[in-house]
Amino acid sequence: MLARTEGPILWIAPRPDSVWAPGSVALGLGPDRLLIAHYKTAADGLWTMEKALRCPALGGAVLELDRLDMTATRRLQLAAEGSPRIGLLLRNAAGHGPSSAVTRWRVGSLPDAAARPRWQLELLRCRAGRPASWQARWAAGQLEVDGAPLARPA
To answer: Euclidean distance between the first and final Cα of the chain, in Å?
Structure first.
């Protein structure tokens, strides 16, 4: 999704080694489009994400932050609702908790004999939707979901 947007993507993380450059390039986010911001406190990360979602120069933003309370997730949800940009919040499994996000996903890696990236995608929560599960892999420069190429929007 992020590779399909126009404009740069801001990746907001607590560590300088959060993004693996060759992996991001292979998935369509080259150094000309990926901006990386590091934060020291969770409040700084949240503030940066809120500003990024409201910034017309960006195509989207990703925030890595494990622990959030319901107020913080609601603030991010309100910023995302008023924005045409994509906003993703990445938390590890131990960091789950209450959230006002429209959807909640669990993503795990899967083995692949050809050493291509492969994932188990689980939609855990979706307003007005039902939970579901898919397997996805990156092949020939595109994402395949359950063995079929993901359709690109017109």
So the answer is: 14
pLDDT tens digits for 103-125? 888 888 898 888 778 889 998 88
pTM value?
0.74
**DSSP 8-state symbol, 33:** T
Convert the pLDDT of each residue in 35-83 to its tens digit: 999 999 999 999 999 999 999 999 889 999 877 888 888 888 888 887 8
- Tracing tokens 């993380």 back to the chain, one arrives at 13
Amino acid making up residue 27: L
Q: What 3-state DSSP class applies to 87?
A: strand
CA distances from 149 to 23, 72, 90, 99 (A): 19, 36, 25, 31
